[in-house]
């Protein structure tokens, strides 16, 4: 026991204990954005005064207390009104006046004692600094009749983590332990705080201390947090070790366990393990929920498993269409990379679900490639024009080759020439193959002077002539019967060091 306690304090802090009565907010600038005033929330001070009177009468009436004990909704309703009053306070204002008026103290004494404080902290989570001030006030009022609850400390630790004040979270944990409060929910809260702030090693250390604590032992929630820690770091071997530890214990998987493991395998692109975990859910007592299906939809999209992606999409279609734009983008990406016969139709149907203000440059680039591969030159050029207008710069060779291939298949050399001029001006990545394609197309149309002019364009952008450049010119002259010019090109090849014995038949 002494060893566990010693390790606990060494882990959490190494400097003097922080006083919880120290003000958590010194400047309004450190708080979250302004919140609606009391008027906009639809209540007034008179209504709050009436509420306080009702709470005081309730606490003085034993029969009413018994009814409130049986029904927590009455307490929740009263706490909700107090939370609205506190949220209406300007940034930086001390909430002690509202809390010290008697209403909160009366709420705390309603059974179960202290429940009102836990509920209030939950309702103030949108303003964590304010919630921490409330916690400080509540701790100052704690006595033997209404002692601090582990859940209150757990909420406070989580709130400190939301403000990215991990030192305060550790100090709150230490203070709870010093007060004789040592519950697994405190460990879980501190682990979550470290996890969300990217402190992986500290989160794991807290779990190790929890395992050594004789008064506590990890719950499935603890293991779920540990799975999340490993999943965020793509430590797949540790994930599987943790799952095995759960199997070896008396604990049972929850929906969070499955979803966390699936998310980790998805992040690591381990599609077989992701599918295996999902199938075990289908065969076991814990069935997939909407979150599971959304994860699987993402995984199927990333792995280009269109058949399963479409089946899963049908199950959560309404949810995805209304609120899951990233998943819509993922499905669009999957279709553009596939050889699905109706991929253009499917992509265009999904694009209609995305509002115009949700513009993603990378989606536009994928659609340009899609239309280029499908030889849909008008649609491709429409998106290219939008890309130029939005100053999108394409640097991927594959995208550029798809574009020029589309122009080549459609024998649209003038359109290709216009595109190259715009790409040059817009700063898109240029390739020698762009100019070679234009030369080939000019040669096929017997526009030899324009073909020769491309050499000057290449020179302007510092693309030297290669053997392929000369062969394109030779073939153009030879096929039009201009043998002397073709022979001249062969001579130029030798002059630039690109000639070989196979070219001698021309001379």
From TrEMBL:
MF annotations from Gene Ontology: mRNA binding
Gene3D superfamilies in the record: Tetratricopeptide repeat domain
Name of the featured protein: Pentacotripeptide-repeat region of PRORP domain-containing protein
Family: Belongs to the PPR family. P subfamily.
Pfam families xrefs: PPR, PPR_3
Annotated InterPro entries: PPR5-like (IPR044179), PPR_rpt (IPR002885), TPR-like_helical_dom_sf (IPR011990)
PPR repeat segments: 254-288
């Amino acid at each position: 026991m002494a060893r566990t306690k010693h390790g606990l304090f060494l882990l959490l802090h190494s400097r003097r204990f922080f006083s919880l009565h120290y003000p958590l907010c010194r400047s309004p600038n450190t708080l979250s954005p302004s919140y609606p005033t009391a008027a906009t929330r639809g209540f007034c001070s008179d209504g709050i005064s009436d509420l306080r009177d009702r709470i005081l009468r309730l606490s003085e009436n034993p029969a009413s207390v018994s009814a409130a004990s049986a029904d927590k909704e009455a307490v929740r309703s009263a706490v909700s009104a107090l939370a609205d009053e506190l949220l209406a306070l300007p940034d930086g204002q001390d909430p002690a006046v509202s809390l010290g008026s008697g209403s909160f103290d009366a709420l705390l004494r309603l059974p179960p004692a202290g429940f009102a404080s836990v509920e209030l902290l939950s309702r103030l989570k949108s303003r964590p600094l304010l919630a921490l001030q409330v916690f400080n006030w509540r701790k100052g009022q704690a006595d033997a009749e209404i002692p601090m609850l582990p859940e209150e400390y757990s909420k406070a630790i989580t709130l400190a983590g939301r403000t990215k004040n991990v030192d305060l979270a550790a100090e709150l944990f230490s203070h709870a332990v010093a007060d004789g409060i040592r519950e697994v929910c405190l460990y879980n809260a501190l682990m979550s705080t470290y996890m969300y702030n990217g402190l992986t090693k500290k989160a794991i250390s807290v779990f190790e201390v929890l395992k050594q604590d004789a008064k506590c032992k990890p719950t499935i929630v603890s293991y779920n947090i540990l799975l999340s820690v490993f999943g965020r770091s793509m430590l797949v071997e540790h994930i599987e070790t943790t799952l095995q530890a759960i199997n070896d214990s008396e604990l049972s998987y929850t929906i969070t366990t499955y979803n966390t493991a699936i998310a980790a395998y998805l992040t690591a692109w381990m599609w077989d393990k992701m599918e295996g975990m999902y199938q075990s859910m289908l065969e076991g007592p814990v069935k997939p929920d909407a979150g599971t299906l959304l994860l699987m939809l993402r995984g199927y999209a990333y792995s280009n498993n269109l058949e399963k992606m479409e089946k899963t999409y049908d199950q959560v279609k309404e949810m995805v269409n209304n609120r899951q734009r990233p998943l819509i983008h993922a499905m669009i990406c999957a279709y553009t990379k596939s050889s699905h016969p109706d991929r253009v139709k499917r992509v265009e149907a999904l694009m209609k679900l995305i509002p115009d203000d949700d513009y993603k440059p990378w989606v536009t680039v994928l659609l340009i490639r899609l239309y280029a591969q499908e030889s849909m030159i008008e649609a491709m050029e429409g998106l290219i024009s939008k890309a130029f207008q939005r100053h999108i710069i394409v640097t991927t060779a594959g995208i550029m080759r798809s574009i020029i291939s589309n122009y080549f298949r459609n024998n649209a050399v003038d359109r290709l020439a216009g595109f190259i001029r715009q790409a040059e001006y817009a700063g898109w990545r240029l390739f020698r193959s762009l100019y070679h394609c234009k030369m080939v197309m000019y040669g096929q149309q017997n526009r030899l002077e324009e073909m020769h002019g491309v050499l000057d364009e290449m020179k302007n952008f510092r693309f030297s002539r290669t053997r392929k450049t000369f062969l394109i010119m030779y073939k153009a002259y030879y096929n039009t019967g201009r043998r002397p010019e073709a022979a001249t090109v062969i001579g130029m090849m030798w002059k630039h060091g690109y000639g070989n014995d196979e070219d001698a038949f021309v001379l």
